[in-house]
Write a structure and sequence with these properties.
283 residues; alpha/beta; Rossmann fold; seven-stranded mixed β-sheet; two-stranded antiparallel ribbon; 11 strands; globular; Methyltransf_25
């Protein structure tokens, strides 16, 4: 959990409606890469912790008997249910809970995945609980965008979204320290997942990078949705100044691209896996 920060229910309040449109997708083929790496064959159960609107749960569901998405935000779960119905995914279900509420009566799992959500949790406590919830040989999966992106092979055909200027605008409205729910992230969010998982008793670490790199067109509406999908600029943080912020944000976007069109390259996806030890039966 981030230093000096305590979780509260407003972390992503109001963001669910913007998430699907605003966030860039994980690399195409991430689900197939994970299925191959873990030898998934349609059996067993998946648990996606901090599932949001089902961005990872739904593509992975076909590799399991059942997929369970857990998130404390009811609006995120409602959006996940809508997306499951739209895509015809019938073996997914959703539970309102924090990672710290686990095991929450959910049973045993073959795979437990955290997609850019583990850093919000009491990581040592949660890792120890997940170890108990996994089948012997089951996998703990950590997914994120690849942080060290390679150099651009060629400039995109349109301007890139002005993320640095957007960050400056957010700080002008919300203060110099990154917001997160009712609190702030003075030191950012933690990393070092390998040490946390080793302390919990996991083993057999593997790392997989799923390439992407496709250039996608983005509109001003997409970038506004990106801003409101984030914990540090969630809609509720602006209070009665939300409309003012959106007006100023659109002005920044228009100065960068008068046609309100942008381009950016999809980031690669980093998948890290650890295994629960398979305990040999006593002689």
């Amino acid at each position: 959990m981030p230093d000096g920060w305590q979780w509260d229910s407003t972390l992503f309040q109001g963001s669910a409606a913007y998430y699907e449109r605003g966030r860039l997708p994980y690399a195409p083929g991430f689900a197939e890469t994970l299925a191959t790496a873990l030898g998934l064959d349609g059996r067993g159960r998946l648990l996606d912790v901090g599932c949001g609107p089902g961005i990872v749960t739904l593509p992975l569901a076909r590799f399991f008997t059942e997929a369970v998405g857990v998130d404390p935000d009811e609006d995120m779960l409602a959006e996940a249910e809508r997306q499951a119905m739209r895509r015809g995914v019938t073996n997914a279900r959703w539970a309102a809970a924090r990672a710290e509420d686990l095991p929450a009566g959910l049973g045993r799992f073959r795979v437990v995945v955290f997609a850019q959500s583990f850093h919000w949790t009491d990581r040592d406590r949660v890792a120890a609980t997940v170890l108990e919830m996994l089948e012997p040989g089951g996998a703990f999966v950590h997914m994120s965008d690849l942080k060290d992106r390679p150099a651009e092979p060629a400039p995109p055909p349109l301007p890139a979204p002005p993320y640095a200027q957007i960050g400056d605008l957010v700080r002008r409205y919300l203060g110099p320290v990154r917001r997160a729910g009712r609190g702030t992230l003075v030191n950012g969010t933690p990393n070092g997942e390998d040490l946390v998982l080793a302390r919990a008793g996991f083993e057999n670490f593997e790392r997989h990078v799923v390439p992407a790199g496709e250039v996608v067109d983005r509109t001003a509406d997409d970038i506004v949705a990106w801003a409101f999908s984030r914990s540090d600029s969630a809609p509720h943080l602006f209070g009665d100044r939300m409309a003012d912020f959106e007006r100023d944000l659109r002005a920044v976007l228009r100065r960068t691209s008068p046609g309100d069109r942008f381009a950016e390259r999809l980031p690669a996806t980093e998948i890290m896996t650890w295994r629960k030890p398979v305990v040999s039966p006593a002689p």
